[in-house]
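Example complex used in Figure S2.
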Amino acid sequence: MRRLLSLTPRAGVLLGCGTPSILEENLWQFPFWGTGLRENPRTMPLTPFIHGIYPFGDPGLGRTPGTLFPKQRGHCPWMKWRSLTQGVSLFSSRQVATQCQLLQTSLGCPSSPQLPQLPDELMSLQDAPGGLFQLPPGDPFPERVTVVWLSVLALAFALVCEPQENLSLAEITLRRLAPRLLVSLRLLVPVPLGARVCFGAPSSPFTPYF
Amino acid sequence: MSPCNDLILSCDEIQDTKLLSLVSSVLLAQGNKGEVAAVGQRVVQVLERRLPEGQSARFLLPVLANVISLSPESLTEEQTNVVSKKLADWLRYASLQQGMAQPSGGFFSSPRTKQPAPITEVDGAVATDFFTVLSVAQHYTQDQWLNVQTFSMLRNWLLCYGGKELDTFNPGATAGGDRCVTAVVPAPATSGQLLPPREHLRDKAFEYCQRLAEQSTRRPLKKDDGDLQKACLIEAVKIVDIICKQDSSYMCRAVSFLKVLHSRICGDATYARALLPIAQFFLNYNKLAAVDSDAICKHLFTDIPAQLFHNPSLAFEFVQFCKDNSQLFTDSSSIFRQSFPNLFKFLAWNSPPLISEFVDLLPFLLDPGTTIEIFHLLLDLPCLTAALDIQLRAAALPASEKAGADPAGKPATCLEAFHHPLYKSMFQYLLRSRSAPEDAPDSLVPLRQLLGSLAGSPRVVQCAETVPVLLELFFRVVAEFADGSLINQLVVLLLQRSDQLYEIPAFKEDVYRVLGSNLAMLCGLRPALVVELSTEILEFSGAVSNIQSKEAIFTHMAWAIGEFLSVSHDKRCTVEQITRFFETLEAVLFEITQLRPQASTPSCAPRAISVLMATLTKLAARSQDLIPRVSMFLSKMRTFVQSPAVTSVYCEEDLEEILIRATELMNLLKMPSVAQFVFTPPVASTRFQREVNDSLPLALRMVTQLLEPAPGSMPV
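Predicted assembly (926 residues):
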């Protein structure tokens, strides 16, 4: 299981995985996603590895992964699924932030601590810095995973894939998703460094599932 | 467990496909095998039937993709055949007309419907063949959505259900563990089809991949479409690979298809990432088909890293490719092994994401033939980064500026030096594509000095940080196979190269630390080298500047001399040799423990002083004529630690430690036979003996207490 989409800025937001149906359904219900996505399957060309987005609470805010999925009595053969959720809870923004900072350093770009104003229109992210790296088994996912990351303004987005995935496609998908996620975030106040922000307003259609 | 039956969620009764997909995602999240099977069954049931008006299957395919990745065995063979047939139809027979926009309604909307326009290719031309993910439209029909979704999940579907093994289905298989659900009997072909469903899907999938390859030759109007073309091509090649694995009758078509594709894209840098799955295909079937993978791999390993090392995604995938095919590196004459200088360019330029990958890869590159060259390469890795930087900048210069500077004079900048006769061959060697130990220039010192101006560049610094990690691993791997001659070679080079490192202070510190500890390790592996390499070791140990600038190496060298210069380790060790070493080290110790240090006297770490004292004592214990000299020296240490010039340089604890050590050693020398035993134990081959060695400080303290039961009886 590798369908994890996480926002990992200097603040941190973790979004987890669901099914593509949730993604599509909620994209339509969110007016600010725009109609372009609804109409055009090519903006989401090969979606097996993006199953969806659901809000994932930071354990520090009182929610733990265990409460997202009801406990099963008896033997649960779904180690892969369960370990994914455990991996999700442990996946820290640190690795992505580190890679992002190292790349920025090597390119000679100073990192700015302030969150700049987010633009209103969807911006093109063709030239946004990004990269690929691997996490070894056990750190934190039970199997080896490849992380595709993209840095936009003061945020970073990461997509966690299985090693044999089509990584070119993962990068394209991330670059296409990121502007829409940025727009939907609409951070109105600067987020303090190190804070974790939950995605999902009270009126969000995500909430009935949790 | 639900408190009430009405709250149990079930997908059995749901007719609306959109609702079904939403409910399914909740059910799949339960982590219950039964629920997944139920969802899988229901989805296939719905897909089997003709859907009512307004309902679309496109909400269900993603659910199905989820089901098969969670639990492929949820579907029966009959169900997979039904779905395979539908998938094949969606792949091949999607509509060639664009979809209609949703009617906007309103007072002035036209009652007449517009004619739908045909789909186009990415270059704007009207499409002449079937619809694929690379076809363009303003709006899409339902079956075009399904076409794209089918392609999305095609690889997984083929991996799960495309195989033809005759093992029986095992209900006890763990979820996700067994990707290939097996077929016992192929389903009977339905009327109108020539092939059974599985084969039919394979056939359409192959056609689809060929179509994608054709579509990728077109020049896209939008850059986004260009990226999509490449990604789809990669996916297509991987699918063709799977198809051939499952049905070898496709091999001929696949080979010619991929050969043509390869020759088309091999000169195009933007398609470089697609070369990897193509090469993988030819490697996979190297033995089967009369397929020659050599030419393709040669191009891949010789040209691509040299030209495209700066592309981080390609670098990452290339290194993964090497790791996935690591068994090919074991043949020392193969292009894989010979190309290691090229591979390190990826690491030199993209250090942070690739260091952990190279930690995995390095052991496969090391063998007795490559050890020395890789040793040099690792120490020069930051130089390689700087040289690559120069190479990139030189390539970007306009032609007019490329003509080299005056060959008679010295180049003013690194860029000028790139083509300058003085430096050209050194650059070329550093930037070589293949292993070439015999071409090594006598020295790269001038080049390192020239590149010193880039030592502060962030990329160079990042690369430098990876070197100690790799060096440590290098020694660990080499220790496993190195014979005596190679160990000796390494030690000599280690001492030589300690003077010839790229001028980055933190880098040099870390490298010295690793070299020092591994020097001790090598001496432990082969103690006789202390005698065999006595010339080089004496030269190194006798240079007082080394104790200051390379303290870590010096200290370990001195320790190794004390440990291993003895007859018990090498019969050729003579009294003269012991004396020679003694005198060399004594002179150094004398120099650094002067009571009135000059400005030129090197300061050094207290640990170095302690180790030198211990080594001299050990040597004296073996050649007892030297005992009086050492004892006298040690007795002067009290004056040394108390002298005002020295107390200002070292802290109190360190001086105290030095004095205690000196006292212990002196006391030990009062009992020469005990000293001999303590300092020259038999070669530690058992754990007990090793523990004796480790407890040397304890032994020293015990002896001291035996000799000085009362406090205050310190030597004068």
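The radius of gyration of chain B is 36 Å. The longest helix of chain B spans residues 223-246.
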